[in-house]
Amino acid sequence: NNIMRLTGITGIVNGMDVSEWDPTKDKFLAVNYDVTTALEGKALNKEALQAEVGLPVDRKVPLVAFIGRLEEQKGPDVMIAAIPDIVKDEDVQIVLLGTGKKKFERLLKSVEEKFPGKVRAVVRFNAPLAHQMMAGADVLAVTSRF
């Protein structure tokens, strides 16, 4: 940490490369957008994401996305346990992307099987899909135990 400070290197822990993830030029998006076109651009990316993962295409339905490692520290079991209550009471869609411990991968697939029209679980590394999820989701679920 001191070496970084002394050499002038700065960064954000767990941050993202702002040029790679810039929605004005991100090559993985269905539609690029900027601050003036964000509302329509996000809606179009949401529809493309819904189609890509096989969920009903409807820009009015809130879409929640989780992208992350399936490890204890990230709390995927807590999130997965909450999904039945969320989808039972709300008109919502959930897309989950991640790999990690096999028990969590199995839990993700099982929640998708229980709610096929509302939940999609992608248990493989898929960088383009991660970009599409960031651009198309209404809500990003960022879980962590610490």
Automatic annotation (TrEMBL):
Domain of life of the source: Eukaryota
Alphabetic keyword roster: Glycosyltransferase, Transferase
Where do the coiled-coil regions begin and end?
A: none
Q: What is this protein called?
A: NDP-glucose--starch glucosyltransferase
Reaction catalysed by this enzyme: an NDP-alpha-D-glucose + [(1->4)-alpha-D-glucosyl](n) = [(1->4)-alpha-D-glucosyl](n+1) + a ribonucleoside 5'-diphosphate + H(+)
**Domain Glycosyl transferase family: from-to ranges:** 58-145
Keyword Transferase carried by entry = yes
Pfam families recorded for this chain? Glycos_transf_1
Q: What class of enzyme is it?
A: transferase
Assigned EC number: 2.4.1.242
The organism is Elymus repens
Xref: InterPro entries:
Glyco_trans_1 (IPR001296)
Molecular function as annotated in GO: alpha-1,4-glucan glucosyltransferase (NDP-glucose donor) activity
